[in-house]
Amino acid sequence: MQPTNLHDIEKLVESVKEIVEITQDKVEKTELFQNVIMGQVRTIKDQQSVMNKKLDKLGEQSSGITEQVALLTEDVAELKELKNTVNNQLLPSVTHTETILTAYGDMYIRNDDNIRKIEKRVQTTEGKLEITPRPEHILADVQ
Predict the structure, then answer these.
(1) Mean of pLDDT values over 15-33
(2) Rounded to an integer, what distance in angstroms lies between the CA atom of residue 20 and that of residue 22?
(3) Cα–Cα distance, 10 to 3 (Å, whole number)
(4) Which of 39, 68, 79, 131 has its CB 3.0 to 4.6 Å from that of 126, i.e. a possible disulfide?
C-alpha cells in the first residue's frame, strides 16, 4: 500500500516515529542493562583477581608447609632409630644394672643385720670379760 496523499504520508511517518521511539526506549533499556551487567562483570573480575592473589599466597605457604612436613618426617625417622637404639642397646644394660643394684641393696641389708648381730655378741663377750675396746674398733652407727 503506497501512500497517495500527504495525510497518509504523515500517518505513516507518525507510525514510524512511534516505532522508532519504542525501539529507541528498548535500546536504551538494553544499554542500561548491559552497563549494569558490565559493572557486575568488572566487580567479579576484581574479586577473581583478589582471590587469585590469595591463592598464590596459599600456594607459597603450602610449599613451606610441605617442606616442614618433610623435615618432620625425617625427624620422626631419626626418633624411631633412636628409640630402636635405646630399646636394643641401652635398655638391656640399664635393666642389668638395676638388677645388680637391687642385689647389692639386698646384700647390704643382710650384711648390716649380720654385723649388728656380731656386734651384739662381741659387746656381750667384752662385758663379761670386762674388756674396753679401743675407739677405732667400735662400729659407727649407720642408718
Answers:
(1) 93
(2) 5
(3) 9
(4) 131
